[in-house]
Here is the input.
Amino acid sequence: MSSKKIVVNKSLNLRGTVKVAGAKNSTLAILAAIVCVGEPCIIENVPDISDVSLMCRILSKLGVEIDMVGKNSIKVDPRNINLTCANFDEMRHMRASYYLLSALLSRFGEASVAMPGGCDFGLRPMDQHVKGFEALGAECETVGGITSVKCKHLKGGRVYLDVISVGATINTMIAAVRAEGTTIIENAAKEPHVVDLANFLNTCGADIHGAGIDVITVNGVKSLKGATYQIIPDQIEAGTYMAASVAARGNILITNVIPKHLESISAKLREVGGEIEYFEDSVRVSCSQKKLRRCNVKTMPYPGFPTDMQPQMVALLSICDGTSMVTEGVWESRFRYISELRRMGAKVSVDGRMAVIEGVRELVGTNVKSVDLRAGAAVVIAGLIAEGTTCIENINHIERGYEDIVGKLSNLGVDIKAVTEVPREKVLTA
Ligand code: EPU
Here is the structure.
């Protein structure tokens, strides 16, 4: 086995243009939802990231045919699915694989799915997903790491989510789309990818209203038809380049974005000293301040500041003047990466869901790990602004959600490369 690393040298003054890829979390939900559509679909603006490849491999194992039909476009044909039990190793590596529960249930009346992995943020319960399925009349049980849902005839119901959950909102919406009658999801998640999924399903003939507000109404339809659909741009990838540009005192144009999705991120970046200008589908982010200012951040469900931008923001705040407080309002435990930033000289203490960051004059490059996807992005940002060289291990986490991060940052003038380390035994026997 060879291990890939990212090596980044201090690179201030980012310049140029970076194009954001399609949204990871939309793509994963939409690819799974095609199973319940039951007809071929063409999906455009699909990001070239390993989580999408993994989802495609899982779908192929179920009997779905997948073909590239252009750069970032795939044709997904779910007509010949021959399994309703998805108990593959791949399932355990990706959270979004649990969308297959609702998609298979909706189409075949049953599904068994191995419980997913994904980033480790402490407990990741599924009680709200179960609540959604049960409201539609399904029986659910989890035995030996496999969750099974069953209902030959789903009927619309009313579900109030006790916590705002993207996954439970999406799973309930997919299950309800072909159920008999109307389903009402109260306290629904409002994230852009929830809206994108609803738009995709409506393009296929579904009757969903209210995606993007607290109450989603799904009027069940008898059948759906295939469609061509373009995925929205990735809010978090855009936010990551925005934070990088402010941290590294850049002046960059970020294209293929929906500025409305970036408002909470822009507000915080402006507070620390960034300048942000919106255009129709792009955003210019620059920073000419010598000293950046501290700020407090609390992560919340959309339209609040996204938890998936929390690590990148902490990396930026680590060099802002003064003491900042960051409260994690979504996940129980999402500060595991702080030890990596500390290795680079950041002064951060963590107490439960709160991190207190005392800004330092500079970070110093060293060897660090990407402990999860967004934590990986945070150490890349830290590497841009740290003196000397930062060498990042475990970059497979970063590759799960960032399309060609090395190429995109190189184009902005960053001194960055991916290196593959060949193990010593291999060198000796070569
Ligand atoms: N929760 C429950 N019960 C449930 C479901 C969730 O208590 O049945 C709790 C969770 O423990 C958490 C909160 O509700 O405290 C929010 O969880 P949610 O279900 O919204 O998260 P998710 O659907 O598992 C998605 C994204 C994550 C992102 C979160 C929050 C996908 C594939 N993943 O996860 O994205 O952090 O929403 O916005 O859409 C990432 O892209 O890096 C990533 C981790």
